[in-house]
Amino acid sequence: HIPETLRLYLTACATKLTTYFSPYITITIPEYCAERFKRGEFFLAIESYLGHACARRAHKLKAELAKDSKNLQVSVDDHEEVMDEFKGVTLWWYASKQPSKASLISFYPGQEDKRFYQLVFHRQHRDLIVDEYLPFVLAEGRAVTVRNRQRRLFTNNASGSWNSYRQKSVWSHVKFEHPATFDTLAMDTDHKESIISDLMAFQESKEYYAKVGNAWKRGYLLYGPPGTGKSTMIAAMANFLDYDIYDLELTAVKNNTELRKLFIETTGKSIIVIEDIDCSIDLTGKRLKRDKKGTKESDDDEKPKLPTDPEKDETSKVTLSGLLNFIDGLWSACGGERIIIFTTNHKEKLDSALIRRGRMDKHIEMSYCRFEGFKVLANNYLDVAEHELFGEIRQLLEETDMSPADVAENMMPMSEKKKRDPNVCLAGLVEALKKAKVAKAKEEEEAEAKKAKEKHEQEEAEAKKAKEET
Ligand SMILES: Nc1ncnc2c1ncn2[C@@H]1O[C@H](COP(=O)(O)OP(=O)(O)OP(=O)(O)O)[C@@H](O)[C@H]1O
Ligand SMILES: [Mg+2]
């Protein structure tokens, strides 16, 4: 009978010897790495890669529902061996686990079993594997993860009911599931095409941004009257690019420090949206309450402010310069692929520093519904591509300014949901357009009258003045 210590020693020696003479090299990738509470990114990438690329060759698989509970995620089961081939070289992956000492109380998930992957290959391929294969696996695995992930809509305004228990993170999120696409978006076709190609160019120009030394980001300013599809456009962009959305509510951000923190916690492949920028900030750095959503005008629930020195007061607000820094690239260190979008109903109210090129690279105007946009809506809502009323509608759309939201609403009044008869719906739209046309004519008339009156008054005043002088 051999003493325990000696036995352990001999086993260790035997392992050493076999490794010494073995022509094979083993690389182990543990599930939990240095930062103990986070699953290692490489481990996760391998898991995705093997499930995707090599699963067909494995005998024992396990399937789990992905986060969105729609896609099945298949991965290689524990204690299973899979073969892979890379540039003609064969290598083997083992998924395995090591039960940890039972006496330990588990502090983090996975303490019970230490799972790991082992990669075995011939030592003559060492350089190929380390320099090319492993980076390849990492990239592939990441791509698979991205394809399977559930996209999310983040918000910093957690006062609502959602996820309010998640106090720790500055952002709270819900699933992002907006059906809007560029196909369903009613707007000028050329305009739409130019936006799509701009987005594609952005997505593909990682190297270019690195070369010119810019952060990999792009800013869009969406402007136009209410109901012209600015928010819808953002959803369509996110769907097109497969990005997350961060909806940044500036009025809920206390100061520039908090703004920076929010920004740093965003991840790549995301769109950061600040809606109604003109209502959120003004040039003196004073934040305005937005009355649009029925928020209170004044902070009368706050304690009366003690007189403080102006410097201190400054830090309690998000200022324009804070916002500019935020866009400019304090943060370029935290990786790229971000799009920043501002929306506004009044472009002319914005400070030129905010929207100059370089900050907002592209200004996109969303405008009233014209015939091209209407055709998209008619197709979406009524499945009509041609109709005898189209000619009249085309004419009326040119003469009135109706937003796509109103056109859609008039074409399909919510109360008459069941009547999807195109004839009825389009006739309803014609009616509404005619009414809008009359209203517009009246408005113009009134404006004209007012102008004439003012002119008259001015002339009178001038005449009076001239009389006095003489
Ligand atoms: N161009 C469009 N194409 C398709 N649908 C549209 C379009 N514009 C508006 N709609 C419809 O009208 C609704 C309101 O549009 P949306 O919220 O995108 O407008 P908005 O420009 O963001 O308005 P606001 O300035 O008030 O925020 C949407 O739910 C959508 O169904
Ligand atoms: Mg909107």
TrEMBL record:
AAA+ ATPase domain residues are: 216-370
Q: Residue ranges under compositional bias (Basic and acidic residues)?
A: 294-314
Mind telling me which SMART domains this protein's record contains? AAA
Name the CDD domains for this protein.
Answer: RecA-like_BCS1
Query: Which residue intervals make up region (Disordered)?
Result: 290-314, 440-470
Highest taxon listed in the record's lineage: Eukaryota
Catalytic reactions on record: ATP + H2O = ADP + phosphate + H(+)
One Gene Ontology MF term: ATP binding
Q: Which is one Pfam family of this protein?
A: AAA_lid_At3g28540
Q: Which BP terms from GO are recorded?
A: response to stress
Q: Which UniProt keywords apply?
A: ATP-binding, Magnesium, Nucleotide-binding, Signal
InterPro entries, per database record: AAA+_ATPase, AAA_N_dom, At3g28540-like_C, ATPase_AAA_core, ATPase_AAA_CS, Mitochondrial_chaperone_BCS1, P-loop_NTPase
- Listed cofactors: Mg(2+)
Tell me the protein family, please. Answer: Belongs to the AAA ATPase family. BCS1 subfamily.
> Per its record, how is this protein called by name?
AAA+ ATPase domain-containing protein
Organism field: Brachypodium distachyon
